Amino acid sequence: MSRRVALATYASTPHLAPDDQLLPPALASLGINAEPAIWSDDSEPWREFDAVVIRSCWDYHLHFADFLAWLARLETAGVTVWNSPPLIRWNADKRYLLDLARRGVATIPTMIVPHGRATDVESFAIAEGWPRFVLKPTVSASGYETHALSTPIDDAAYDAIARVTAIGDALLQPFVDEVSRHGEYSFTFIDGEFSHATLKRAAPREFRVQTEHGGSVERVNAPRVLIEQATHVLQALPETPLYARVDGIARGSAFLLMELELIEPNLFLGESSGAAQRLAAAIARRLSDTLASD
After folding, report:
1. Does the global pTM surpass 0.85?
2. Any catalytic annotation for residue 163?
């Protein structure tokens, strides 16, 4: 019997994001039928799949309660999900950066501004010695409501702060100059093994590196010392994720984590020959292990 896998996506990309479209043929070559399925579509027959792989669910942060409820329904139904729901729930709130820092991972300094406390942002930034800083919701993706601001705060900046803190708790960090000057590394890992590295750069007069904000991506041969430090990030997790993207900057020979993406990252499969096949092989191995244990 052919094995059947759902590649969870969202309504705006019902046929998968371009990068993820490399995955179904790679899985088909291994005898696995991979089908795009919209996570928010209640008519999807989730129980009929041997596994659900979370991919381009790029609106989850806009419907967070519904997304968590969907994950809970899959768990209750006994559906295998990768990455696992406990890992996804932990990774969905950017407080995970504080957890990783406590586990010995070098991260960008991070503070949490409580919901509704817009007036605290400037005083926090000044107290930390951050004349320029970044503020975003603790649950966010794709640069959503992410702002680079400077002290002293003017009216336009305060309006942005008020919007972010009205959404919920907010994440406050110093502005990282290295992103503008040198770019941000993304290290893609498959089943805990390093696959490939890319460098993301922001467009002129923009600080966000995401392609939806005009950013660019290029394949790079990253220094081994940085890859080793990125690998250390995954070693701090309680389980090995099927896929992970470890984003950060180089400060000298040190790698500083900015984001650990375990939910719906673009894995830049098209930037590395064989990457889609490596991910397909990892899914096949996990499927075999799961079916053998049933």
Report:
1. yes
2. no
